[in-house]
Write a structure and sequence with these properties.
This protein is an alpha+beta fold. The protein contains three helices and eight strands.
């Protein structure tokens, strides 16, 4: 990463972080292009180096299909954690909002690295749990708002 900071690499020694980053390959995503789509096979996890990605969920709204934004992710943040969690399919669509560069690390490379470096694997797994937990909290908040709206409409 250009700034050396990533939510996935937090707590790793500089050598362990560099070793993990060496497993990855850089990919450019042009503004407006999708990095991945909901339902695609998730073979890589991505660390955003520069740019910004929006994560969306397709919905049918008022007779037309819309990509509803769930959240934005920026440099230092991780997306594509579905690559490490069965059934290994992306649960959202990621689209670049501006020209973006990511580091893609394959699931197989990560697993082999974690097998050879269990302490690094443990640290990254804890970091990944934090990323997943944040998403779950976001969806819980969205769901509670919708439930509140539904209850209010019933009571009106």
């Amino acid at each position: 990463m250009s700034n050396g900071q990533s939510d996935l690499l937090a707590g790793l020694s500089p050598a362990d972080a560099a070793s993990l980053m060496a497993l990855g390959s850089r990919q450019s995503v042009r503004s407006g292009a999708a990095l991945f789509h909901l339902g695609d096979v998730a073979g890589c996890i991505y660390l955003i180096d520069r740019g910004r990605l929006k994560l969306t969920l397709p919905m049918h709204v008022m007779g037309r299909d819309e990509e509803v934004m769930v959240e934005e992710r920026s440099p230092g943040q991780t997306i594509g954690w579905s690559a490490l969690i069965p059934p290994y399919r992306f649960t959202l669509t990621a689209t670049a909002q501006i020209d973006t560069e990511v580091v893609a690390i394959s699931r197989d490379a990560l697993r082999a690295h974690f097998a050879a470096n269990p302490q690094a694997g443990y640290t990254v797994t804890l970091n990944l749990a934090t990323v997943v937990g944040s998403r779950l909290q976001l969806f819980q908040t969205m769901w509670l708002r919708e439930m509140q709206r539904t209850v209010e409409l019933r009571c009106a």
